[in-house]
């Protein structure tokens, strides 16, 4: 690879490092190299949204960080390899109004026909990309097209048409796929379907938990309606685009780990989205994370799959 640029996860997915693991931990699968890894773990305890860990054969130099620390870039000198983690949860232009725990003070303002410059600007320079989005579309939002408000999702009292998140998700993915398929990009582009969560007895904001400690048997965990709706739209828009990409010589591939991940309710940080949540109070009630994944854990498998495709096509 000659100065490959690797763009990891545009959007709402993070390699969450769970409380028990520390940065000299060995034996994790490397993200890119298949040799014995040394782990570089970057963790930001305040925000689960910016935790990224990269297990790799050498310690990289961080060469970029945006103002809110959500997007970062590292350079691995001996391979002349650059990895970027780009925070763009909607892939289209969005203004959000919420804190690190996801508590909003206003609806997201979403422009369904304007791609987010955060990833758009760097797109031409990347050799490999993994693009995904998903759950953020379930949030209360006001939708804009052509700079005009066309409707919303979950905005009672605003006198706007409720279009539903499906409307916005289809429009956005269609637009993203349209851009990709006509981009004449020469790199390898993965589109990853959104990942299923395992919140039980509530959701992320109202006490949901995921207490399972062992994998489920195949078929034991059914996909939730919302996860299924998101995935179906993703598959549909990918299919439509993939019929056309070949003509344009764009190398777009699908990564869909839904069934593997459904069987791993035990793989989430749970209460350990913060370091040592029970150190002060053994019976404290803490917010659980049953959406992101621990490392080591189920997503180590992704690296093997991605590696196989990158190396062997
Ligand atoms: C690293 O890659 C950049 C961009 O392709 C190139 O300009 C530079 O010469 C490379 N550095 C080395 C040491 O090969
Ligand atoms: C991290 O792990 C190493 C190796 O297992 C261990 O020696 C070290 O004490 C750990 N550090 C912390 C802060 O737990
Ligand atoms: C520990 O947390 C529980 C549950 O929130 C609470 O009832 C209790 O008062 C806390 N104990 C202390 C010492 O803060």
UniProtKB/TrEMBL annotation:
Chain ranges of the Trichome birefringence-like C-terminal domain: 54-308
GO cellular component: Golgi apparatus
One Pfam short name: PC-Esterase
Keywords recorded for this protein, A-Z: Signal
Signal peptide: 1-20
ATP-binding among keywords: no
GO MF annotations, alphabetized: O-acetyltransferase activity
Family: Belongs to the PC-esterase family. TBL subfamily.
Protein name: Trichome birefringence-like C-terminal domain-containing protein
């Amino acid at each position: 690879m000659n100065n490959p640029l690797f763009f990891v996860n545009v959007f709402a997915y993070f390699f969450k490092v769970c409380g028990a693991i520390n940065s000299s931990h060995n034996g994790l699968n490397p993200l890119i190299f298949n040799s014995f890894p040394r782990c570089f773990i970057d963790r930001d305890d305040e925000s689960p949204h910016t935790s990224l860990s990269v297990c790799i054969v050498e310690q990289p130099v961080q060469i970029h960080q945006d103002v809110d620390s959500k997007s970062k870039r590292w350079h691995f000198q001996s391979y002349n390899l650059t990895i970027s983690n780009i925070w763009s949860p909607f892939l289209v232009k969005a203004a959000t109004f919420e804190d690190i725990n996801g508590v909003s003070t206003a609806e997201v303002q979403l422009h369904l026909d304007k791609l987010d410059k955060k990833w758009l600007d760097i797109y031409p320079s990347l050799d490999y990309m993994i693009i995904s989005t998903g759950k953020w579309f379930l949030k209360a939002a006001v939708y804009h097209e052509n700079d005009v408000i066309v409707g919303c999702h979950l905005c009672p009292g605003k006198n706007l048409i409720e279009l539903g998140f499906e409307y916005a998700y289809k429009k956005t993915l269609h637009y993203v796929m349209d851009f990709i398929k006509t981009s004449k990009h020469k790199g390898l582009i993965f589109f990853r379907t959104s990942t299923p969560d395992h919140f039980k007895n509530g959701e992320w904001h109202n006490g949901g938990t995921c207490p399972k400690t062992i994998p489920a048997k195949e078929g034991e965990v059914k996909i939730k309606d919302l996860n299924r709706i998101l995935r179906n739209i993703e598959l549909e828009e990918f299919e439509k685009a993939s019929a056309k990409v070949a003509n344009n010589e764009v190398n777009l591939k699908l990564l869909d780990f839904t069934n593997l991940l459904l069987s791993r309710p035990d793989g989430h940080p749970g209460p350990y989205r913060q370091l040592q949540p029970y150190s002060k109070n053994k019976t404290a009630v803490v917010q659980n994370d049953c959406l992101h994944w621990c490392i080591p854990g189920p997503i180590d498998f992704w690296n093997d799959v991605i590696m196989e495709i990158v190396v062997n096509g």
